[in-house]
Design goal:
Biopolymer transport protein ExbB; 7 helices; rod-shaped; 5% strand; 255 residues; mainly alpha; MotA_ExbB_proton_chnl; two-stranded antiparallel sheet; membrane; transmembrane
Amino acid sequence: MTTPATAAGASGAEQYGLIPALQQGGVISWSVFILLVLSLFISLFILMSKWWEQQKIINQSKGVRGSFWSAPNLRDAATKLEKNSAYRQIVDDGLLAEDQHTKLTDPIDQHEWINNSIARSTASIGAKLSGGLPFLATVGSVAPFVGLFGTVVGIYRALIAIGAAGQASIDKVAGPVGEALIMTALGLITAVPAVLAYNWLLRRNKVIMESLVAFANDVHGYMVSGGAVRPSFGVVKPAPVKVGATASGVQTTKA
């Protein structure tokens, strides 16, 4: 059975909870609260979606080192890459530029034409990877100030309550002060993950773009050299040779 003291305590806790504090704050408090919560969920969504997108490209890079450069020519090598992947896009754009060069009416060096096409392809991939990061940067910068605005409104309402009551009693200021603290905390909770996600994703983008640019340079060198120039890890090296002395002379054997 609930005693009167316990019931009164429960009633007081409900009176000073999150929802009552927001209801007392009115439209401004609800607007700030909804804006911050929505920004937090969008930031988390961007974090997960960009991580998944980055991880796909990182996994694709392993396949490039494994089998791409061992193909007899670039067109056969392209078929070994996942369709619509970042690396496949660079190769396809390079091959397309090679085919288009013969149709140009104004003279331009083939290597320059191919290099420009591959560079544009790489830049478009970088722009796609950077999508959503400006939003994270904006949330990380603005969210604390939005929370601070809610804090100021809460403190203002607390001062109004004190002035109306003529004394600073706890029951008059607990609601507005609690609302102010909630807005401060919510602003920080929204901003910190956004800043951390932005810096982490930006660093991963930099590593991915370094790998893509290196691959684009390798593709360009391969195309303008007719396949003579390729990365060292894509060249099958001959087996080492041992030279050993025998009773009849010098004998050469494979390791």
